[in-house]
Amino acid sequence: MTPGTRDFKENSRVALADAQLRRALDGLPGGLVAQRAAAKARLPEFEALTAEARDIRDHTLAHLDLYLEAFAEKASEMGTQIHWARTASEARDTILSLCRAEGARLVAKGKSMVSEEIGLNAHLEAAGVEVVETDLGEYLVQIRGEAPSHIIAPAIHLSRDQVEADFRRHHTHLTADRRLDEPAELVAEARGVLREKFLAADVGITGANFLIAETGSAVIVTNEGNGDLSSLLPKVHIVVASLEKVVPTLEDAALLLRVLARSATGQEITAYTSFLTGPRRVGDPDGPSACHVVIVDNGRSALLGSEFRDVLRCIRCGACMNHCPVYNAIGGHAYGSVYAGPIGAVLSPALIGIGESSDLPNASSLCGRCEEVCPVKIPLPSLMRHWREAAFRSGDMGLVARSLLKAWTYAAKRPRLYHALARFAAATLGAAGRARGAFRWLPLGRGWTRTRDFPAPQGRTFQQLWAERQRGVPR
Amino acid sequence: MEPRVGLFVTCLVDLLRPSVGFAAVRLIEASGCSVEVVEGQTCCGQPAYNSGDRESAREIVLATVRAFRGCDYVVAPSGSCAAMLKLHYPRLIAGGGKDAGEVRAFAGRVHELTSFLVNVRSMTRVPGALKARAAYHDACSGLRELKIATEPRRLLGSVEGLELVEMAEAESCCGFGGLFSVKYPEISNAMVEKKAAAISRAGPDILLGGDLGCLANIAGKLKRGGSPITCRHVAEVLAGELSDPPIAYPESS
Q1: I want to staple B67 with a disulfide (CB 3.0 to 4.6 A). Which of A337, A412, A419, B40 is the partner?
Q2: What residues of chain A lie within 8 A of the CB of B45, using their CB?
Q3: ipTM surpasses cut 0.85
Q4: Which residues are registered as beta bridge partners of B213?
């Protein structure tokens, strides 16, 4: 099931009718949202840290070339091989050729959104390389043939019952009497399966939360330790990271990790935070014998000089999705894009074009909660509005919507005409709706009146009544 | 000499519920100002601005700013329109030109109604009285863009007989969002369903708010669901202008 961004409206209808999905999403306010709020309350300087986090990201983006070169130089010094990929296909090909050079048949993969973005798994599988996702949530959506529905909680749309059913279908070694009705039993089952994959894998592929220019390290945070097993056990470790992941120093990374963990899950620090710097050195007890970092652009450098630059500050915490009332209503799959929620509404048009994705930045009430909770203060509503402007300019707005908008703006620029039309509308709609006080059906607002009444006007406009009052007519 | 306040009526109050405009006038006058309603105003321009038609929005900005020349303050009974006038107008007409300067000066004179009464006019007592349990809905723009939360509650605290109750997830959007509610009605409905449920759990007699858009949405949902909870603009209760029926209700009830 890979619904596209063009099917957003239909996807969202299907999602809204899905009672199981609704139950899963109803857990968000009391879950990730409440956990973040509690973590923020425990740290009085949280807001000050987010301002610093924003500044670090802004500074890095302003000097991105410099820090990328510094990272590449330092990482090379530590024995890491750097690969630059301008496009998704270059990134896929680079990684496939690294796997081929190793004769890899099995890849253990850590969670990585950029790998979703470049379509890595399908590319490797088509070339005969088996890929196993090792993050539990990613593993669950992988065996279901789905995409992640959330950037940090990929299987947030699933219930425990669904997971049990999927395991019984997919793990043919399970006997009928094996109990799987507790989350701990499900985790134990997944751990047993994944442990063998870690040990058998020829190559480990992970993303990176940050790349540190000062040390040449890749930083990976996980709560399951699967990032460490994916990167340390196989002979070769490949990091795939988009170019804005670079930060100048260890200290910068430390600050960003503090706001990342709190914003994402309400943790003080994520359970496993690993700084991976080059392959195994002489005397090291473990680690890969070769280490690669594939740095992916895929349209990002074009954003640097644009009105959308601020979106590159994102540290992928998911707070904007957790707090978004639209995401809370329809979940991640309905967006039909790799990235869902407010960050997806801004990032997806940059990756796949606004013509393909104009519903995404439009399907928002611009309530501003995403910007409020963003740990790097990305002005997501403003950026959504900028995409709406791009869609308007390129004529991607529907003909009816465009005509209505044009007619309305024509009147709004002409006060006398506008007031005459308002008087007419107030009088006719007022007369039609006065008996009930509200409409149960309106020709241009059927979507609204299908589920809600629409209040009837009182009959005369304020401007009309005010003019009468000025002339001394009593109300 | 009393300060001259230009009332920014808002298109929804003008069209749907003039009584909110008269309530606002009464409150502004009670705070010791004279009120002017300029005819050159239409709408703040958000439908164009939020639909991506920046050029039309800019034309509306300049016309609106010129219409309110000569007013000491511009006050709107809506956090959403006030945020548009105060924060987004200067973004639309930016730079160092003459227009930009005038728009910045205009924006500096703009206030949302309850914020104007409390923060500019230091009003502590209001004319209204109502024996009821009321909940207040914080509209998104007022709350997050203009940081208005205590002002309406402080004024409502001085309404004789009124008891204020708070609802859960008060910071969540009601799903109105202007054209959003028309373009994505199913998603909008899912949002207002949650909002109506949270309001019902808080158990007020009446729901108040500072924005007629949210109130039309919430009142329409409550009424369709058969809820006994009625909705009014906060200005109506503060001013004691309660002769009109609640939002979405007919004359007789």
Answers
A1: B40
A2: 412
A3: yes
A4: none
- Give whole-number Cα distances, B50 to A85, A271, A461, B46, in Å: 36, 42, 25, 6
Determine the Cα–Cα distance for residues A256 and A45; give it in Å rounded to an integer.
14
pLDDT at A1 over 60: no
Please compute the mean of the pLDDT values over residues A157-165 and round it to a whole number.
96
pLDDT of A393 higher than 70: yes
B22 contact residues in A (CB cutoff 8 A): 462, 465, 475
State the best of B8, B12, B14 to mutate against chain A, taking most chain A CBs within 10 Å.
B14
CA distance A292 to chain B (A): 43
Ordered by start, the domain boundaries in chain A are: 1-37+320-397, 43-150+194-298, 399-470
Residue B87 reports pLDDT greater than 70:
yes
Question: Looking at residue A338, what is its pLDDT?
Answer: 97
- Strands, E, within A382-462: which ranges? 438-439, 454-455
The residue count of chain B comes to 253
Q: A378, B11 in Cβ contact below 8 A?
A: no
pLDDT, one tens digit per residue, over A217-269 is 999 999 999 999 999 999 999 999 999 999 999 999 999 999 999 999 999 99
Question: How many C-alpha atoms does B30 have within 13 Å on its Cβ side?
Answer: 21
Q: Is the pLDDT of residue A67 over 50?
A: yes
Q: Which of A295, A298, A232 is nearest to A76 (CA)?
A: A295
Chain-centroid distance, C-alpha A207 = 15
Yes or no, beta carbons of A329 and B190 under 8 Å apart: yes
pLDDT tens digits, A413-436: 999 999 999 999 999 999 999 899
Confidence of residue A399 (pLDDT cuts 50, 70, 90): confident
Interatomic CA distance for residues B26 and B9, integer angstroms:
13
Number of H helices and E strands in chain A, helices first, is 25, 12
- Fold of the domain built from segment(s) A43-150+194-298: Rossmann fold (3.40.50)
Q: Which of A324, A367, A404 to mutate to test the interface with B (most CBs of B within 10 A)?
A: A367
Q: What angle do CA A320, A326, A330 make, to 5 degrees?
A: 115
Residue in the structure block whose two tokens are 């539990």: A136
Q: Report helix angle A46-62 to A64-77, nearest 10.
A: 90
β-strand pairing of B129-137 with B160-165: parallel
CATH numbers and ranges of domains, chain B: 4-119 (3.40.50), 125-239 (3.40.50)
B253 pLDDT above the threshold of 60: no
* Mean pLDDT along residues A182-199: 95
